[in-house]
Design brief:
Layout lengths: L11 E8 L2 E8 L16 E13 L8 E10 L2 E10 L2 H6 L2 H8 L1 E6 L4 E3 L2 E3 L3 E8 L2 E4 L1 E7 L2 H10 L5 H24 L1 E4 L6 E7 L2 E4 L11 E2 L5 H7 L2 E2 L1 H4 L7 E2 L3 H12 L12 H4 L23 E5 L3 E5 L4 E5 L10 E6 L6 E4 L12 E2 L2
Antiparallel strand pairs: 1-2, 3-4, 3-6, 4-5, 5-11, 6-9, 7-8, 9-10, 12-13, 13-14, 15-16, 17-23, 18-19, 20-21, 21-22
């Protein structure tokens, strides 16, 4: 269950200002680490979506502390337990954004865990839980003061005897880590533009780089027969957008926007990094482009606000076999042809990449992510 596949990153504060149409970055960053580094197990932890069973229950909101009590039951594959705890939620979100309705429509939790299933009376379960976040729309909220009760009595006994008290301090550190990410994502939304796709009503965050406006989220418009959710699961589309083959990618952007040309991708990287002698000569910048969520073992700092999410890709093996690969490990984006040039490139980065690089497309039937740029 390698990252269902998301990983978040924290221990930093960054501020992004959009000035004169250019993303300008100011950052004060602590040394990078992933949530599992709190457990001295960097690279070994997973972060996966899990379904919520039944109704999410909310306690009385405390305005002066912005604390929202919550409880629900997780029941999905290797997870079977009840959760109770407190989220930090701004009052304006509670009062104006139909927050409770969004949560009960999303019905999804994200679990930080170590993927070591154990047998409890014939039932395979994961009990090494490091944290639980509640998804409400496209936002995640870390649950502090976390209390877990497993449905399986033997699993509950093992949790109580070996993990519940002994690792409570570490779980609270994971909550701090997640809430720092939550604040960072909120700061990005505050300085970003927004555009609504008139075809389906979906809203995307945008940023301006050297006067050009770009989608700062992966496109999620359904091009019938030419776009897919990773592993055909809708919750992955909601998080990381759809995957498109070339024909679908050419139809993915709304009117007034287009699939970026190869030259426009190059201009984006130069505009973000200010490496005017060529990004290949630039120091490491991939981490600054990566979203704080969506990467196995830890996300990036997202200092540029471009928020690259690792959505993996889809490929055909032969004429009928479909494979989804590398969510949490890889992100690839289509580019348009340059004039009469028939060569098609994607722009990509991997989990361990220092830079974003250009790659030849191995097959036009492969499916990758799409970003859009304003203008014709």
């Amino acid at each position: 269950m390698r990252e269902g596949k998301m990983s978040l990153k924290s221990s930093f504060k960054s501020m992004i200002a959009v000035v004169f149409g250019m993303a300008v970055v100011q950052a004060v960053a602590a040394p990078q680490k992933s949530w599992d580094a709190i457990y001295n197990a960097e690279g070994e932890g997973d972060y996966s979506a899990a379904k919520i069973e039944g109704k999410i229950r909310f306690g009385k909101y405390t305005h002066y502390k912005e604390v929202q009590p919550v409880s629900f039951k997780v029941a999905d594959s290797l997870f079977a337990f009840s959760v109770a705890g407190n989220m930090t939620v701004p009052a304006a979100k509670i009062e104006k954004e139909h927050f409770y309705e969004k949560c009960n429509e999303t019905m999804e939790a994200w679990i930080s865990f170590f993927n070591t299933p154990r047998d409890f009376g014939g039932e395979q379960l994961v009990i090494n839980i490091a944290g639980v976040d509640l998804a409400c729309g496209d936002e995640l909220f870390a649950i502090g003061d976390l209390r877990i009760k497993f449905t399986n009595a033997k699993a509950q006994e093992a949790w109580a005897n070996t993990l519940e008290g002994r690792e409570k301090y570490k779980r609270e550190k994971v909550v701090e880590y997640r809430r720092a990410e939550q604040e960072h994502r909120a700061s990005l939304r505050d300085v970003s533009g927004m555009v609504k796709d008139p075809r389906d009503g979906q809203v995307y965050r945008t940023i301006k780089v050297e006067g050009r406006e770009w989608f700062a989220q992966n496109v999620n418009y359904n091009v019938e027969g030419h776009s897919w959710c990773y592993e055909d699961k809708e919750n992955y589309c909601a998080r990381g957008g759809r995957l498109y083959d070339l024909e679908g990618a050419r139809k993915a952007c709304p009117e007034g926007w287009h699939l970026p040309r190869d030259r426009e991708w190059m201009d984006l990287l130069v505009g973000l990094t200010h490496c005017y002698d060529g990004v290949d000569k630039c120091e490491k910048f991939a981490n600054k482009m990566k979203a704080t969520t969506g990467w196995q073992g830890g996300g990036g700092t997202d200092e540029y606000g471009f928020s690259i999410f690792s959505s993996g890709y889809r490929k055909m093996v032969g004429k009928s076999i479909v494979r989804y690969e590398d969510m949490g490990e890889y992100a690839g984006f289509w580019s348009a042809q340059n004039g009469r040039n028939e060569t098609i490139w994607i722009w990509a980065m991997g989990r361990m990449s220092d830079q974003m690089v250009r790659q030849l497309v191995p097959s036009k039937t492969n499916a990758y992510s799409v970003r859009c740029i304003n203008g014709n």
